Amino acid sequence: MNRYFGFFIALFAIQNDLFAAEAGMPQLDPKYWASQAFWLILVFTILYISIAKFYLPKIKSNLDNRENRIKDDIEDANKFNELSDLKLKEYEKILENAKKEVIKIHIESKNLLDKEIQTKKNTIEKEIEKEITKAQKEIGDLKKNSISDIQKISENIASSIIEKISGDKLNESSIKAAVEDISKKNLGKYL
Amino acid sequence: MASNPMQQFSVHKIGPEIKIAGIDLSFTNASLFMLISASIILLFLFLGTKEKKIIPDKIQLIAEMFYTFVAKMISDTAGSKAKPYFPFIFSLFMFVLFCNMVGMLPYSFTVTSHIIVTLILALFIFIAVTIIGFAKHGFKYLSIFVPSGVPAVLLPLITVIEIISYLSRPVSLSVRLFANMMAGHTMLKVFGGFVISLGLLGGWLPLGFSVALTGLEILVAFLQAYVFAILTCIYLNDALNLHH
What one-character-per-residue DSSP string does chain A give? Predict the structure, then answer.
């Protein structure tokens, strides 16, 4: 600043007769000093009063409002944050308990089912066994009956064949004896 | 030179002559531009505080930025005790800044380029600060002239220097602003005159200088307003807190 102020002084002194009364600095002419002082004091006083009384309090209250609002909002946000943390913890706890319960229920029901299956299996097995023995007995009966039936049928067939071939009726008891004899011989082969 | 570069600083009467008790208090172009600057400040602050929005619009934001800028300046240099003087320093900063800035407009008048204006502001500050100092500390305020930790031999000399430096505060404060504004505006005028006198062939270089200087002057206009306000804060700090 001082550098070009000096430059200006030098330049200016060359350009103008600096200290001649008319061409000199109007600033140093005291003619309007009182007027400038008067108007400066008047204008500045008005400016100061209106700024101090009206505008600065307005700006200040607005800035304070904003600051309070921001502070409140941050407080609220922190509160909500804490609340959500709390809720999250609660939720996690509930979730964990639920998981434990699920496992418990799973094991319990599995045990229950296993037991039930076992008992049902046992009863069914018993029933099956019963059925099997019954069926075996029936089969045995059938076997026994079938032998006498076969003998009878064989006797009939034999007597009718003999009748057809020879035209004579043989003694029934002799045929029966013969069939019995043969079937006894061959029974072991088929049964 | 086509015209005197000091022409721009001349004060002339506008309207009728006002004389009170034999003193000429006529309305002049200087008064006009003081009024214009103050009106612009008040209009700007009016628009900036018209709507109290939580999310500010542009002009409100600028008004609030000025507020926080000056508030920070005061609290940084003079501490919390200077809070009651905030409106004065804010008004002072705004007035000097807007007078400087209005003076940057072509054909306008720079109020702060007159020594009488800056001297009255500086004297008011000087007297007010001195009164505040004595009111707060009584005669202990005189200890401002006796810095601590100085050898006894040097003390008389230092005290004299301190007194001179204290008394020259209004002069340095006012001359700094006045000289900066006058020098800058004269420079602009001189380079403007060179553009005309050197004509179409040689006028381009001073034109470039003029453009660059205009930018520089806008910076200076802001800077000097800031310096004026911050020095006021520093003087106030001396009066309020009294440690050298």
Answer: -HHHHHHHHHHHHHHS-TTSTTTS-GGG-GGGHHHHHHHHHHHHHHHHHHIIIIIHHHHHHHHHHHHHHHHHHHHHHHHHHHHHHHHHHHHHHHHHHHHHHHHHHHHHHHHHHHHHHHHHHHHHHHHHHHHHHHHHHHHHHHHHHHHHHHHHHHHHHHHHHHHHHHS-PPPHHHHHHHHHHHHHHHHHHH-
Question: CB distance A39–B31 less than 8 Å?
Answer: yes
Q: Is the residue at B94 inside a domain?
A: yes
Mean pLDDT by 10 residues, chain B (244 residues): 68 77 81 91 88 81 90 88 89 92 87 90 93 88 81 85 91 91 87 83 85 92 92 90 71
Whether residue B109 is contained in a domain is answered as yes
In a domain, B2, yes or no: no
A67-97 residue pLDDT tens: 999 999 999 999 999 999 999 999 999 999 9
Mean pLDDT of A168-179: 76
In a domain, B1, yes or no: no
> Which residue from B minimizes the CA distance to A33?
B116
B127 in contact with A, Cβ within 8 Å: no
pLDDT at A13: 55
A10–B contact, CB cutoff 8 A: no
Domain map (residue ranges) of chain A: 2-190
Q: Do A55 and B45 touch (CB under 8 A)?
A: yes
Q: How confident is the model at residue A14 (pLDDT cuts 50, 70, 90)?
A: low
Confirm or reject contact between A68 and chain B (CB < 8 A): no
Owning domain of residue B91: 7-241
Count structural domains, chain B. 1
